[in-house]
């Protein structure tokens, strides 16, 4: 069995456990709702709106969460409005760049020189793009993509760095071109639980070519993430 066959098998088992846990939780929640629904609708609404004891009401907690999301959206809208105002106030054509941020990797592309109308046409065609002007007066259109960049698909490896951290490298690990560090591994527990071939392959570097492989490796080794609390020194007696 290859390393990826093993990792995918572990990932599929974990995913099935997650599904069973979700179904079990849903059934339990449904039963609790049926029991709780013995109260009158008036009592339920009163509990949601006023809470009980000293606890914050559930409805207010939900409203607080929605308020935070709304504030984030308002901030993005404000930034876009500011960008458009600055763009409208400018004259002539501007150098335009497209910056794409991936789960692994960032790519920048020079689109060319466009006037305000051309920039707006691009943004209307791609409504998720965010625009900004840099200090040189050049326009940057930015997007986020939930995938590996083409460069990462060709060169990314998952391995362990010198400090024992699960790390994503550009190229073989020995070149030490770190793209991203995830968490410190409990190497002792990992070596006693996983097949030797998997440990050896991780040390040499596991080639990552797509999001399925990325998620499989990350999910499997997250079970061996060292608790940061273990690294905190206890006060001397």
TrEMBL record:
Domain Bypass of forespore C C-terminal per the UniProt entry, residue ranges: 147-222
Against InterPro entries, the record matches this protein to: BofC_C, BofC_C_sf
Pfam families, alphabetized? BofC_C (PF08955)
Q: Does the keyword Transmembrane helix apply?
A: yes
Query: Which keywords annotate this record?
Result: Membrane, Transmembrane, Transmembrane helix
Spans through the membrane: 21-38
The name this protein carries in UniProt is: Bypass of forespore C C-terminal domain-containing protein
Q: Which organism is it from?
A: Paenibacillus ihbetae
